[in-house]
Design brief:
single chain, about 230 residues, alpha+beta, Pnp Oxidase, Chain A, seven-stranded antiparallel β-sheet
Length: about 230
């Protein structure tokens, strides 16, 4: 299939200031939303239970939220075969790092501010397991041997000391119909190579990018490029 480039457009002028009504205090927010009740209050825990371990063993994907010392935020996706988040004990987790783009935005944040938030996902399930805590980076540990995938140990790992853990309800997934294939339409967007070429100045041609992001792209998921 021939890929077409995204047409270049003029920058959209900034809109006039919105007449939106801001919320500036916790009291205003609570007056609007009300107070949490019942299970929403009591679901927080500080240690993993057997069901949490079962959930993590089934999860192949998570999001890690971080912020640097100045409050600049980042959210990074992490994925591997189900169970890739290793439970070290009832209060500690470890998440492996695989070869990537080397930006290390979240990891640099952790070095200046250890607070992290995780959302762990199980495909087809609307609930998520959320974990908040303090993280540190480790370059090696005995459990790295348990994280080998396709013959490759992780580059490093994020260890998280759990401060808060709880299940989040399914409403956002139900509203979005995220797991319903009939709602999926990836073809409405151009190939990723076309997107890259339209938003970045690259040395590679569009054809070279299409080849790079083609079927062979998966070959570099675990072997770091030199």
């Amino acid at each position: 299939m021939t890929e077409t480039a995204v047409p270049e457009t003029e920058p959209t002028p900034s809109p006039s200031p919105s007449p939106a009504t801001p919320i500036t205090t916790a009291a205003e927010l609570r007056a609007l939303l009300g107070e949490p009740m019942g299970r929403a209050v009591t679901k927080e825990r500080t240690r993993l239970l057997p069901i949490d371990r079962q959930w993590l063993a089934a999860s192949p994907f998570c999001l890690i939220a971080t912020a640097d010392a100045a409050g600049n935020c980042d959210v990074s996706p992490k994925g591997d075969p189900a169970g890739f988040i290793k439970v070290l004990d009832d209060t500690r987790l470890a998440i492996p790092e695989r070869p990537g783009n080397r930006r290390a935005d979240g990891y640099l944040n952790i070095l200046s501010n250890p607070h992290v938030g995780l959302i762990t996902v199980v495909p087809g399930r609307g609930e998520t397991l959320r974990v908040n805590g303090r993280a540190r980076l480790v370059r090696d540990a005995p459990y790295f041997d348990d994280m080998i995938v396709k013959g490759h140990r992780p580059i490093l790992a994020v260890e998280v000391d759990i401060e808060q853990v709880f299940f989040h309800c399914a409403k956002s997934f139900l509203r979005s119909h995220l797991w319903q294939p009939q709602t999926w339409n990836p073809e409405q967007l151009p190939h990723h190579a076309v997107i890259v070429k339209s938003v970045q100045q690259t040395q590679e041609s569009l054809e070279e990018l299409i080849e790079y992001y083609g079927p062979s792209y998966e070959n570099g998921l675990y072997a770091a490029k030199k």
